[in-house]
Every structure is written in structure tokens, then in C-alpha cells.
Amino acid sequence: MAAKKKKKMIHEFYKMKEAGEKVVWITSYDYPTAQFAEAAGVDMILVGDSLGMCVYGYKGTVPVTMDQCIVHSEAVRRAAPRTFVIGDMPFLSYQVSHQEAVLNAGRFLKEADCDAIKLEGGKRVVPQIKAILDAGIVVCGHIGLTPQSSGQLGGHKAQGRTGESAEALIEDAMALHEAGVQLLLLEAVPPEVGKFITELLPIPVYGIGAGMHTDGQLLIVS
Predict the structure, then answer these.
(1) Quick one: which of 40, 133, 160, 162 is 20 to 30 A from 170 by CA?
(2) Whole-prediction pTM value?
(3) How far apart are CA 81 and CA 191, in angstroms?
């Protein structure tokens, strides 16, 4: 009988970055998909708020609730007990107050046994990130195209395509690193920007439409 897969943890993702080994990361929202993901040996699973479109047929991620995210995260964890699972903080689960941010982030650990949480935003969410980190929760940042605030970005468009916006992205990445995030996701940014940020930061930097030079790729399962 083959040996059971051992779940990778944060320190191993750092070692993979140092060794130039790419992380394989996909989204999953249900028990059977997560079972297949673990059997295939993926390194991480994100229970993304993209479940709004992929599962419920919403136009975007904004309608997704904490309860929906928790229910789907619970199913994924039961199916993939030996895979690093990240729960995605939905819209208004962390923007209102630091206290609500910590309580909602904690639900992913207490109720769904997730290993970490992800939230969107750069410098503007640093106070919430610090509060969540102070509670002992692993945080993955998310900058670039941030679907929850896509209205402010002019729709679902690539970010960092001008010198000014690329500089702003780099500033956001540095701010999140300095705040203490352990992982960072870049979405829909030019490959050159993805490469620069990946090489600039000592933490693992992953991409979703950010070029081949990031430390791994996130694929959306729909």
C-alpha cells in the first residue's frame, strides 16, 4: 500500500520557493472535487469566494456569505485532510471592523479546520491583517485584480499595466509583506510585474494570470 500523503505546511512552501520548486494550487468547493485534488497530490486548495459564480451562478463574488464559505470549506476539509486548505474571506467579512475580521477569520479554523485564510486588498487592509495575524492565524494576501472591489478597478481588468499602477502594486506587495502575511497571490498582472514582486519578496508569491515566474499557479475549477 502506498504511503499516505503528508500535508505540506508554511515552512515547506518557503523551502519550495528557495529551491525553485513550483507549488500546485487549485480551487475546490465540494467533497468530490477536493477528493480528486488530494489524490492527485496538489499542494494547496483554496475554497475561493469564486464559488459564487462556479457553484451558485452569481454574477460575481460580492453576494457570497461567510456561512456559504464555511459550509464549502468544511466539505473540502473532510475530503482532503492531508492538503493545505485556505478559506477565502468574502466581501464585508473583514472590512467593517478589526473585531469582525478576526472573528470571521477564526471561523475558518474553528468550524472548517482550514490552515489559513485569504483576503483581498493592499495597504488599506493592513490593520485587519495585523489583527488576524495577532490572533495566530496564517494569512495569504491577494492583490492585483481583486474581484470584490472590481467596480473601483473599472471591471475585471488586468492591473499594473502602466508604470504608475505597477508601482502601486509593488507598494501594496511590500506593505502586505511588512504587515506579516505568509503568502501572497497576484491576480491578472503583467508577467514582468509578477516576476519583479516574486523576486523582491522572501515569502512565496503565487499567480493567477501573473505569468510563469511566480512561485506557483492557482487554477480555478469551475
Answers:
(1) 133
(2) 0.93
(3) 33
Distance CA 54, CA 38 (A): 20
C-alpha cell read off for 158: 488586468
Model pLDDT for residues 115-174, shown as the tens digit of each residue: 999 999 999 999 999 999 999 999 999 999 876 654 555 545 566 668 888 999 999 999
* Options 111, 187, 192, 199, the catalytic residue: 187
Q: Does residue 12 have an active-site annotation?
A: no
> Could you give the angle at the alpha carbon of 146 between the alpha carbons of 107 and 172, nearest 5°?
95
Residue 135 gets which letter from DSSP? T
Going by C-alpha positions, the residue among 92, 81, 141 that lies closest to residue 114 is 81
